Amino acid sequence: MEDQAFRTDLAEIAAQRFRRGEIDRRSLLKLLGALGLVPLIGSDKAFADAKELVLVNWGGEPSKVLQKVMGDTFTAETGVKVTVDGSGPSAGKIRAMVESGAVVWDVCDSGPGSAIIMGNQGVATPIDYSIVDKSKVIDGFTWEYGVANYMYSYVLCCNTQMLKETPKTWADVWNVKDFPGKRTFRKSVRGMLETAAMAMGAKPQEVYDFLKDEKGIKAAIAKFHELREHIIVWSSGSASQDLFLQNEVAIGCIWSTRAQLLRDQMPAGGFSVTFNEGVLSPGAWVVPKNNPAGAELAMKFIAHTQDPKLQVEWLKLIGSGPANPAAAAMVPDELKAWDPSSPEHMATQTVYNDDWYAKNQVKAEELYIDALIN
Amino acid sequence: MQKASFFRIAMRTGAWMVLAFLLLPMLVVVPVSLTDHSYISLPGQGLSLAHYVNYFTNPRWLEATWQSVVIGVAVSALATLLGTAFAVGCWFLSDFWATVARWVLITPLLVPPVVQALGFYRFWVQLGLIDTLGGVILAHTLLALPYVTISVFAALANLDRRIPQAARSLGASVWTTVISVVVPAARPGMLAGALFAFIVSFDEIVAVLFLTVRNVQTLPKMIWQGIQDNIDPTIAAVATVLTLLTASIMVVVSLRRRN
Amino acid sequence: MAARAFADRHRYWLLILPALAAMLIFYVWPLIQIFAISFTEPTTGFGNYVELLSSRAIRTSFVITFRVAALTTVGCLLLGYVVAYAIYNTRARYVGLMLMLVLLPFWLSVLVRSFAWIVLLGRGGVVNDALIGLGLIDRPLALMHNEFGVLIAMVHVMLPYAVLPLMANMKGIDPSYVAAARGLGASELTAFRQVYLPQTLPGIFSAALLVFVISLGFYITPALLGGGRVLMISEYITYQIQEFLKWGLGTALSVALLVATAAVILAAARFVNLRKTLLERG
Questions:
Q1: How far is it, in rounded angstroms, from Cα C42 to Cα A220?
Q2: Is the domain of C154 the same as that of C256?
């Protein structure tokens, strides 16, 4: 006798394998047809229109969460298969794809700075704001070639087991006498000079005032030069995580999303994070030029990710703060401590200033590298 | 000669210490690969094969290994064919221009890897070879050619020039002479060259980083990403497998040579 | 006879041509393009070179590159000399094994070896654990994420490149000179210093050239073990291109590195038989 539950299970396995790309659509339908279960997962017609959408982010746990929260829900809604590639959409790789005419990514988890660079170089598609809703993004975080996908902060973290006292401000981080141990900062200048400015007494709201001219920038650079012997840099989110996991550093300025993962990976009570004097920054979706699934589908996916419910779920699993202001009201209390863009955290942080970077990044980047290696 | 002196003993001891330094990193990956923890560490309570299981069952690692093998074999064949023909031609000519040509062929040994990778990248974009197996095979073949030509040329150094001359004067054509007289003499160099070419390709990382995006995943690229992302002991298992493989190839080669 | 020789030469060139053409089209031509890009992107002119010369960070990076390459060379020569000497002169047992141990790392991927050094030198790595376990130190030493770690790993990678030319040189040295000096009453150390060592100078120069030139272009090892503070030019180039798409500056740096490499080789031509060192090494 045929067992309906068993057959459903088989269908489920087949559907999973299809999603993972292990069997093709034709074999899946044949199998489901044989089981008499085609209607269970939608008609042939729905599949005929189905395409694959490839998202790319920076690997590790966030890839799994992106797949689950944004990818699978999009598939459920539209029938479009979504794959997440974690190999890291650096501007260089995107340009490589566009130039070679072999674009395999549809939507990239990038940043506003890279979005601007890629827009200038003609390798990104402008965001279509008739599909993507500007009103569902915090004011100021929409750009021509990118739109904020989530918020994260550069936060002060420490391995409390390696320290007697826990540093609470950037001034403490620069105090190597009372807080000994290696520190980690980002290899790129993004989000870094802000911390030096605060270490020198600038209030979070005044950071870019402090850095507005050469004098301020030079002072912040000099501050890093002073600390250089104690610094190991991280060049990717997972690398920053690893530096803490391997006890290579005691203190660090890393992304809040990675800090949330570390909270669970480090020994209980051995790790502390503060949003005090953090640098709140948006990530951005960028669509490469000539993406395989077409610009429209990519824009539809971006619009899908604007759903505040999904954004709250994303926050819960990975610490990505909602970019949609409507989500703030839906964040449960216990998550508020990890929401980079919650009102409480907004009050103690500085907000990443794109205009400043557009004007100063190139020069600052070079000075920063020089300060660290010289 | 003289009996063992302080000087000799010091040199000999020093040499063994240096060799231990050479060997140490290769030995340390073995216990780490057997760790029972999920992070890089020496084994705690007991030994575990979990990381080998992960390597041999994870489709991404296997796919990358397979692609590396395919690329390596293709590179080895191509480079040996082109390089042998080249070295044989140069050996016959042995004039100024042939020497110039030999210098051209060894440039990849001297040009910094990142610089040549940039060059490949820009040209491969124009040729539509980015992220294709063919693109990687072509780049690696060029990088492997110096090794093949040098070892074939070294093998030909033992060949008496009068032998092919005799063959020619007995009426053999140039091609017949090459195939039946020169190539057999070059064979040890060809074998060594083919092996070198395979290893050069199998280990190459910098060009692969620039020339591939997603479709082509080689083993070194997986290791590179693994070290940059989350260092997990699977890399130690892969490293152990590669070390054992390299060591056994060397043993086989040196035994063959002895026979 | 002359006609046949001419026809033969044609045929020999036909053998040479496929590899040579592949190399010229797919290797040399792309390098020329790199040269061209450095003068044309983002704008035509010498802008990239002006930036290169006026940047302190780039100057520092070049200093680091040359310093690391030089220290690696010194380390490799010292260690490599001892090994080569022991293989040829101390009638050590297991010469075959010694040779094998020199060659094994030569054929093992640089990536795998860098990984092994990460495992060894990390703060919670095997070396630190062992030293703490033995009670020799009470807090971990900073062995990695600095120039020291990079040097250790680079010497490890480059050592075979020093040992092989030294061995090739020592193989050809007639032992009767040293024996004669000893017979005339020189101490073993004096005989080594005044008779043997001078004869190995060509080998030392060859080894130094090979190690130095290849070290200049290193990317993988410093990137993985340097902690970002041992920024050699190759890593600088990659960073400019991958992060900021600054092809102009990246290619200008490449040209500078290439020119520096060529200058080192040409300068070395006075002391080193380039043909033996580069073209005919076995």
A1: 29
A2: yes
According to DSSP, the residues that pair with A286 across neighbouring strands are: A108
Q: Is C229 on the interface with A (CB under 8 A)?
A: yes
Does the pLDDT of residue C204 top 60, yes or no? Answer: yes
Cβ atoms of A75 and A50 closer than 8 Å: no
Cis check: omega of the bond before C42, within 30 degrees of 0:
yes
Residue C241, both tokens: 């291109």
Report which of A43, A104, A47, A153 is spatially closest to residue A287, judged by C-alpha positions: A104
Q: What is the DSSP letter of C173?
A: -
The CA-to-CA distance between both ends of chain C, in Å, stands at: 36
CATH number for the region B50-258 comes to 1.10.3720.10
**How many other C-beta atoms are found inside a 10 Å radius of the C-beta of residue C165?**
26
Instruction: Report which of residues C76 and A359 the model is more confident about.
Output: C76
Number of Cβ pairs < 8 A linking chain A and chain B = 54
Task: Calculate the dihedral angle through the C-alpha atoms of C24, C26, C27, C30, rounding to the nearest 10 degrees.
Answer: 110
Q: Which chains touch B (3 or more CB pairs under 8 A)?
A: A, C
Scanning C190-219 for CB atoms below 8 A from B yields: 192, 213-214, 216-217, 219
Q: Give yes or no for a contact between C87 and C167, defined as CB atoms under 8 angstroms apart.
A: yes
CA A265 to chain centre: 19
Three-state DSSP string of C27-56 = HHHHHHHHHHHHHHCCCCCCHHHHHHHHCH
Question: Percent of chain C at pLDDT above 70?
Answer: 98
pLDDT of residue B8: 86
* B vs C: CB pairs below 8 A: 262
Q: Report helix, strand or coil for A232.
A: strand
Q: Residue B20: in which H helix or E strand, if any?
A: helix B6-33
- A233: chain C residues, CB-CB within 8 Å: 227-229
- Determine whether the interchain pair C64/A232 forms a contact, defined as Cβ–Cβ distance below 8 Å: no
The model's pLDDT over A17-27, given as tens digits with 9 standing for 90+, comes to 555 555 555 55
Structural domain span for residue C28: 1-40
| C-alpha distances out from residue C162 to A83, B16, B95, C85, C89, Å | 48, 16, 30, 12, 17
At A153, give phi and psi (nearest 5°): -125, 150
Q: Which stretches in chain B have pLDDT values below 50? A: 1
Pairing of strands A147-159, A107-110: unpaired
CA angle A316, A321, A323 (to 5 degrees): 130
Residue C223 confidence (pLDDT) above 90 = yes
Which letter, b or e, does each residue of C183-221 get, where b requires 16 or more Cβ atoms within 10 Å of its Cβ? eeebebeebbeebbeeebebbbbbbbbbbbbbbbbbbbb
Q: Domain A152-280+350-373 is of which CATH architecture?
A: 3-Layer(aba) Sandwich (3.40)
Query: How many secondary structure helices (H) and strands (E) does chain B include?
Result: 12, 0
Q: What is the pLDDT of chain C when averaged over all its residues?
A: 92
Q: Candidates 3.40.1580.10, 3.60.20.10, 3.90.320.10, 3.40.190.10; correct CATH number of A4-150+283-329?
A: 3.40.190.10
Higher pLDDT: C42 or C154? It is C154
Q: Which of B198, B94, B141 is nearest to C22 (CA)?
A: B141
Q: What is the pLDDT of residues A171-226, one digit of tens each?
A: 999 999 999 999 999 999 999 999 999 999 999 999 999 999 999 999 999 999 99
> Which of A28-32, B244-248, C216-220 has the lowest average pLDDT?
A28-32
Best CA proximity match to A308, nearest among A296, A298, A295, A320? A320
List all residues 6 or more positions away from C158 whose beta carbon is below 8 Å from its beta carbon. C72, C73, C76, C211, C214, C215
Which chain B positions have a beta carbon within 8 Å of C119's beta carbon? 25, 28-29, 32, 40, 236
Cβ contacts (< 8 Å) between B239 and chain C: which residues? Answer: 112, 115-116
